[in-house]
Amino acid sequence: MRALDFFAADGSRLSSRVLEGYAVEAWDIRADYLEKYAIPDATKRCGDSFKLATETTPRSYDAILIDAPAGCFSGHCEHFEALEAALPLLRDEGTIIFNVFTSPLLYLAWQPLHGGSTRNSLRRYVGGDLAQWNQARRRYYRRDNLLLHEYLDHYSALFQSKGYETLRRWTERRGWGIYLSTWRLRRIIS
Ligand SMILES: C[S@@+](CC[C@H](N)C(=O)[O-])C[C@H]1O[C@@H](n2cnc3c(N)ncnc32)[C@H](O)[C@@H]1O
Fold this sequence. Notes:
Layout: E1 2-5, H1 15-18, E2 23-28, H2 31-35, E3 43-46, H3 49-54, E4 61-66, E5 72-73, E6 76-77, H4 80-86, E7 90-101, H5 104-110, H6 122-125, H7 129-141, H8 148-161, E8 164-175, E9 178-187
Parallel strand pairs: 1-2, 1-4, 2-3, 4-7
Antiparallel strand pairs: 5-6, 7-9, 8-9
The structure holds S-adenosylmethionine.
């Protein structure tokens, strides 16, 4: 079973737990992170994952993890564009895993409390990056904050519109305002 780690870093926070048991291909733009990648025997590719996706054979992976940076980064936001880029790489039946932020504000308040990166602290975001982040969310979700059923409805409709039926879905709370969302999908329309 093959898995793609779309934003791999060193894999220590999430990938090593979620992708255990798969033959993993790890992509990241940072070679220094990939060097320390936590899953032994993983194949590593350093580069822009959006570009690597266009160079990869469609329907190659049984599972894809999109552990995107929080907020906006180099012209992208969360997993919004990465999901579009990665979905064609999923096999006709496969699992896609990504983070859902129900409330960026709550998430940023929680980061320093649990020893998370100060890069994502509320202090740094308020006034600038948070406004930009919420603006991107309004374009994507039509709102800043989401209730759990709203997020489930959003992605059910999205996957259906792309020709998939949802076989199973799981939601795991990672912290304040952040959930890990797992979807087992089957392609019914090519
Ligand atoms: C949240 S971290 C991933 C954490 C990792 N999954 C783990 O378990 O520790 C996000 C990663 O995305 C990478 N990244 C950001 N933009 C990228 C891009 N365009 N292409 C590839 N990697 C990118 C960053 O270098 C960072 O390592």
